Amino acid sequence: MPRIAIAECKQEVSTFNPVPSVYDDFRQARGQAVLDYHRQCREEVGGALSVFDAADDVEVVPTFAASANTSGGVLTAESFDHLSNDFLSSLAQSGKVDAAYFSLHGAMQAENENDPEGFLLQEARHILGPEIPIVVSLDLHGVLTDRMLEHSDAIVTYHTYPHVDFFETGVRAANLLLKITAGQVRPVTARVKIPALVRGDELITETGSISECIQLAQAIEASEIGLSAGVMWGNPFTDVPELRTNIIVVMNGDEASAKEHALELAKRFWTHHEKMQVPLTSLEDAIREASAVTTGTVVMMDAADATSSGASGDSNAILREAVRQGYCGRLLAPIVDPAAVQQAMAAGIGATIRTTLGGALDPARFKPLKLEARVHSLSDGKFQSESFGWQWDAGNTTVLEAEHFTIVVGTRPVSLFDRSWFYANGQNPQHFDLVVVKSPHCEPHMFADWCAKLIHVDAPGATSANLNSLGHKTCSRPIFPLDEGVEFHPVAEVFRRL
Ligand SMILES: [Zn+2]
Questions:
Q1: CA of 83 to the centre of ligand 1 (A)
Q2: How far away, in angstroms, is 4 Cα from ligand 1 center?
C-alpha cells in the first residue's frame, strides 16, 4: 500500500504592491485538518484526494496546507522562513512515504527568496530522497523555474483562464503520480522558454487565441505516451529572474517526442503573442464614454487594482475621475480602506461621516479622496465566494453612500474576480449605471454577457495591464512587451530525474 504525502503552499504576488504579505495572511491546516478542509472544496488537493480515496490501496499522509486568503505583496523574510519551516518540518515528520503530491501556485516571492516554490521542492527532495516520485500542480500564472523542474518528477498545470479547473488539475496530478509510483511510466519533461509577458482577452480559454495552444496541449496530454502538457504564461507582476512564458510537455520516456511537441506548442504561442495585450482606455475617456451610455450598465475592468493578481485594492482612481467629471449615474465600486471602515463603525448605520477613501495602502499611487457619505450598512466582512464556495474575509466592511455613488469598503483585500463581495453587502451590480470591477476578467455570465458596455481602464496600480508602467527591474531581458524587437529562438531543454 503506497503512502502518499500531500502538502500545499499557494500565493500569487505582485512585486509592485508596497504592502508585504505575512504568515497570518495564509489559511493553514495540519494533519487530518488538511483532509477535512480539502474533501469539501473543489481545489487541487480535493481533486487529488478524490483519486487517492477511490484507489483503495493508497494511504494518504496529510502534512501541511497553506493558501493565502488573497494575492498580495512580497512575503516578508520572517514569514517565508516560518511558512517553509512548517511545510518542510511536517513533511520530515510524516515518516517514510512512497510518493508526494504538492499543490503549489508558482508565483510566490519572498524578500529573501525569488523562487519560494523551487526552494520548497529542493528541500523536500532532500528530505524524501532521490527515489521518491514528486508530482506538482501549478497555476498557469506560476513562474516555472529550473529548480522546480530539477526537483520534481512532473509538473501539471491548469488549462483554463479564468480558472475553473482547480479540482480537475489535482485529479490529473494524482493519476500521474499513481502511474509513476507503480512504475508504469517514466516521465521526461521538455521545457521551452518564451520571452513574453502577456495579458488580455486573447488569453481567455473559451474565446481567445490561446485556446488553440491549450487544445493542442490537451491533445498531447491525452496521446498514448502523453503525461502532461501546458502553457504557463506566468504572472507578469512577479518580477523575479525567471519570469517569462514557459511551455512544458511531459511524455512517457520519449525525449525526442517531448521536445518536438514543446517546440510546436511554443511556436504556436509565439504566432499569437503580439495580440496578447490589452487595449486600454484612459480614465478620462472611460468616464466620458460611460456618461454617454443612457441605458444599461457600464462595467469598468480595473485590472490595475486586481486583488487576485496581487494589487492592494485601495485604488480610488476611477472614483476620483468620476467625481472630477461630475458623473451623474449610479456608481458601484469596491475599495480597501481600514480607517474609513473604523470611522463608519464608530458612527453607526444611518450616520453621515466626512472621510477619505483610497491611498490607505499604496499612498505613492493613490491620494486620499475626501467625501461625505452616509453609512448604509456594516458587516463583519465574512462571506462565501459565489465561484467555488470558498470562505472569504474582508474584515469589517461598510457600504457607504455618497450621493449616487455606492462604495463597498473593506478592511483588507479579498479576491474580486466574481460578484460575491457586492452580493454579500446587498448590492446587485445590475441595479447600477457604472460598476468598477477590480479584476482583469470574470466568468462571462457575471458581467460581460449582460452589460451595455465593458471598458478596460488604464488606471494606475500594482497589477496594471500596461506592463511598461510598472518598472520591472529583475526579470531577464529582452522580453516582450517591455523591450522592442524581441526575437524568439526556440530551444527545448530536457529534465529527467531517473
Ligand atoms: Zn492564476
A1: 21
A2: 26
The pLDDT, as a whole number, for residue 1 is 86
CA 138 to ligand 1 center in whole angstroms: 9
Q: Is the pTM of this model over 0.90?
A: yes
327's torsion region: left (phi>0), alpha (psi -120 to 50) or beta? beta
Which residues on neighbouring strands pair with residue 96, listed in sequence order?
none
Average pLDDT, the chain: 97
pLDDT-derived band at 389 (thresholds 50, 70, 90) equals confident
Sequence-distant (≥ 6) Cβ neighbours of residue 58 within 8 angstroms: 1, 2, 4, 52, 178
How far, in Å, from the CA of 177 to the mean position of ligand 1? 23
CA of 12 to the centre of ligand 1 (A): 8
* Exposure on the CB side of residue 47, measured as CA atoms within 13 A: 24
Distance 329 CA to ligand 1 centre (A): 33
Residue 240: strand pairing partners: none
Domain assignments of the chain as residue spans, ordered by start: 3-276+491-495, 281-457
**Is the pLDDT confidence value at 140 over 80?**
yes
Give 140 Cα–ligand 1 centroid separation in angstroms: 6
Q: Please answer whether residues 312 and 19 qualify as being in contact, where contact means their C-beta atoms are separated by less than 8 angstroms.
A: yes
Torsion of CA 239, 228, 133, 65, to 10 degrees: 50
Q: Residue 176 C-alpha to ligand 1 middle, in angstroms?
A: 22
Q: How far is the CA of 139 from the centre of ligand 1 (A)?
A: 5
C-alpha Rg value of the chain to the nearest Å = 23
Distance 311 CA to ligand 1 centre (A): 14
Q: Ligand 1 center to residue 309 CA distance, Å?
A: 8
What cell does 328 get?
Answer: 451623474
List, for residues 21-49, the tens digit of each pLDDT value. Answer: 999 999 999 999 999 999 988 999 999 99
48 CB-near residues (< 8 Å, 6+ apart):
6, 101, 103, 137, 170, 171, 173, 174, 177
Residue 206 neighbours by CB distance under 10 Å: 12
Report whether pLDDT(497) > 80.
Answer: no
Q: How far is the CA of 481 from the centre of ligand 1 (A)?
A: 20
pLDDT for 336-372, tens place per residue? 999 999 999 999 999 999 999 999 999 999 999 999 9
CA of 233 from ligand 1 middle (Å) equals 9
